[in-house]
Design goal:
Elements (H helix, E strand, L loop, with lengths): L2 H13 L13 H6 L9 E6 L19 H9 L5 E6 L20 E4 L2 E4 L25 E5 L22 H7 L4 E7 L1 H14 L3 E10 L6 H12 L2 E3 L2 H4 L1
Parallel strand pairs: 1-2, 1-6, 2-5, 6-7, 7-8
Antiparallel strand pairs: 3-4
Length: 246
Amino acid sequence: MSDITRRDSLRLLAGGAALMGLGGATISQNLMAETLDADGNEKSALIVVDVQNDFVPGGSLAVGGGHEVVPIINALSKHFKNVVITQDWHNPGHASFASSYPGKKPFETTELFYGTQVLWPDHCVQGTKGAELVDGLDIPHAQLIIRKGFHPDIDSYSGFFEADQKTPTGLQNYLKERGITTLYVVGLATDFCVAWTAMDGVKSGFTVSVIEDATRAIDLNGSLANAWNAMETKGVARIQSSKVLA
């Protein structure tokens, strides 16, 4: 996907309009379910996206029901030898914060060098309680934490690339060097960081499923429906945790 297309799709996702220009073949969800083999598979990895205090009730950018994913993710993690956690990790005064722009309010937008940026409440600031992983998230065998969004002038939804779609986090090379080919994505929020991580996973050459009941959404102006449409178009499968836990 071109940078312009990705920027436009991000803007439209936030605004609730239909996502445009998301080419790519759709992978059959039934086929994905039939070939699910996460348990004990050295080539599969669970990607746990941004299960942090600021994204659960009581946090500064709380996702409704965000805390509900924790026990599901804990149960899922026991079926994977390979687990990676992503963590939003913003500088104070980050370019994605509404507070960085006099007169701007959360959920308004501004133009940055890479395109239209949704402005968020201050969240997941480095070293704060809000940036910490949620208490109760119990995945002691997770091998890697990828921190993203620490470049002060670039936001980051995806676990693979910052929002400029050029700056890598290192996740792609890590997974490929480990010989991992199949990803199962869970966490917060479905329509932003989970969706972009899943789509960039496909773009990076992996087979990707999002485990729907192990995610929760912000659903900003229809962004949840738009995100699922975008993921399906890009070839991301949509499954339930029962496919892994059975």
